[in-house]
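Researcher: Please predict.
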Amino acid sequence: MITFILIAPENPGNSGAVLRSMKNFEFASLMLIDPKFDLNNEEFRNRAKWANDLVKKVKVRKYDLKKLRKDFDYLIATTAKLGRDYNISRSPISPEQLAEKLSDLDKKSKLGIIIGRESTGLNNEEISICDFTVTIPTSKDYGTMNISHAATIIMYELFKQQNKENITSHIIPITEKEKEHLYKILEESMKKMNFTTEEKKNTQRTLWKKIIGKSFLSKREAFALMGFLKKIK
């Protein structure tokens, strides 16, 4: 199940437009984190148009990154700001690549796609808790998109992919709990390695977490990786 998560949305019309697009592309779960309006806002409901049935299902939550992380098997950040090679957290994939990756997952997996503030987007801390980031290729002259437009493009790519025949439905992905266990084993293995600086160790930690997040490992792959890491002395 995919949930679209808006962080501190300011414009009720934009959030309503996100709901309308969700209706177009058969998504039903929207979460608003610290919205600057309530669900009875007239502009919000008017822009939602024929998606008023989804308004009743909207979840409103307080800002809590740790709880948000625990609620989902995978968290995916969106950003207009591209990172360079050394900025691992902001090394993104495209919406089309995202759709291809998600097609391999069990439909029961809980996925959250986080869309940042209209004014400032997501900060580095918010991006760092996510498994990886997605960005939409846009003009170099003006790359920032309206949140409803960005969400709609992502929904379209996901919808398009979901309607293709899925030949990997037999693959069982790891859960968030199993992923956290893998991270713990990775951490234990890193303690046995000699890093010249703490910064280099942190870089490797971030790098491997992003690799694991982007890979959508199956249980078989994850257990094989755990076994390999445990052999490091």
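Model: The chain has a mean pLDDT of 89.
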